[in-house]
Amino acid sequence: MKIDIKQLERLPIWDSPNCTFIVSSNVQVQRPNVFSIPKDYIESQHYIAAADLVISKPGWGIVSEAVCARKPLLILDRQTMKEDQNTILYLKENHLCKTITWNELHHFVIDEAFMKKMRSQYPFHNTFFSNQADMVSKQILQVLRNKNDRV
Question: For 51-78, how does the pLDDT look when each residue is reduced to its tens digit (9 = 90+)?
Fold first, then answer.
């Protein structure tokens, strides 16, 4: 996404209290609480595992890592991008993200109330991520039993 670097650096999000940011190597924000991932580092899941919140565009690389790691996810809603809208629709239908527009980001600061809301609305308690091996094996056994009963 093409963003004016000076505009990005002026966003109030960087002044969020008690926040440290880990950003992509292409994000050139110079603040004491902002750290860039090295360009040659490919294990993004390690950074996501350390995060309390993932803020990203809706590309499936980072989104899938965040969902699998059960991290609260704030997606930049680029409404003109059709492929983004499909991903966002799926994530919202499954209560896996909140969205923010570029205009909203111009006034956005992360605070404890926002983080509390994100944590409380994330589906840790539902079965979306649960291991279904037990259920699948029981259903397979039931199918096999039914087939043997008919023979």
Answer: 999 999 998 889 999 988 889 999 999 8
Sheet with 54-56, side-by-side order of all strands? 54-56, 73-76, 98-100
Beta-bridged to residue 36, according to DSSP, are 23
Asked if residue 110 lies in contact with residue 16, where contact means CB atoms within 8 angstroms, the answer is yes
Q: Report yes or no: 76 and 100 within 8 Å, Cβ to Cβ.
A: yes
Give the domain extent around 103. Answer: 5-150
pTM listed for this prediction:
0.77
**DSSP type of residue 143:** H
Give the CATH number for residue 125.
3.40.50.2000
Q: Which residue has the tokens 């091996």?
A: 133
Structural domains counted in the chain: 1
Amino acid at the residue 142: Q
